[in-house]
Amino acid sequence: MSFIPRLFLPNVSPEQKEIVLDESSTRYLVKVLRLVEGAHFFGFDPQSIQYELVLKNADSNQALAQILFRSEQNKRDSQGLIALGQSLPKAAKMDLILRQGTEVGVNRFIPLVTQRSISRPESSGRDHKNERWQKILVEACRQCGRNDVPKLDPVIEWDKGLELFKEFDLVLLPYEKEAPTLHTVLESRNSAGKILILVGPEGGWSLEEVREAEEMGAHAVHLPTPIMRTETAGVAVVSMIQFFKSQTPD
């Protein structure tokens, strides 16, 4: 099968028949991929709508594309939402977590500053981080075929993160010390639709944080794996939950 490129289209109105592509998209299609007039490609927008398009004008400065078809294929059910509350690791690791989390189906990312977080961005620099992380999510969706870009929350402190627990049916905190297994908790709460997974930083959770999370209704769980790095734990737990749900009758 030949490669068909995909682009993120941030501003498309329902009545549009043609799209004037921005400089970055034009450069990617015309100069990098060397597409010519008549070439087909796909796009997706913030509403999870997918587009089939054809290049009408391959001008290297500003290309024009015609919309051939719109669809909402692969739009994810918000009732089956999986969110990842990630304690901030070193910058490069967060980039990896966002990319891989998007690939395995995370619907929402909640960056957390916890007691042992290595990365502690100043308030003035958090908007810049979120802008860059948003671009990473879009690029990950473009690469892996997702049409729905995950929601990215602003960076928040741990105490504010605790307040978000009420938005979820089940909150899981993978913990290397003694705790019920993930499978046991999932079996006891198999009707949970919206699930939040909490992943600690490189230094792990403090005892105080585990206690606070449990007091707010979180379930500490033991994973059937060796101790994992912070950049792999969330991806692994999401995959385990999805497999469990796929094996559980409705």
Overview of this structure, please?
With 250 residues, the protein is of the alpha/beta class. 34% of the residues lie in helices and 22% in strands. It is built from 7 helices and 12 strands. The protein has helices spanning 23-32, 91-104, 123-144, 158-162, 182-188, 207-215, 230-247, and strands at residues 6-8, 18-20, 40-44, 50-57, 64-71, 82-87, 108-113, 151-152, 156-157, 170-174, 195-199, 219-221. The strands form 2 sheets. Strands 6, 7, 8, 9, 10, 11 and 12 form a 7-stranded parallel β-sheet that branches. A 5-stranded mixed β-sheet has the order 1-3-4-5-2. Helix 2 (91-104) runs parallel beside helix 3 and helix 2 packs parallel to helix 7 (230-247). It is elongated and about 60 Å long. The mean pLDDT is 89.
As a percent range, the share of strand residues is 15-25%
Largest sheet: 7 strands, parallel
What global shape is seen? Answer: elongated
Helix percent band:
25-40%
Number of strands: 12
Could you give the order of the helices and strands? EEHEEEEHEHEEHEHEHEH
The first-to-last residue Cα distance is 35 Å
* Count of helix runs: 7
CA radius of gyration = 20 Å
Weakly predicted, low-confidence segments: none
Structural class: alpha/beta
Would you tell me the overall average pLDDT?
A: 89
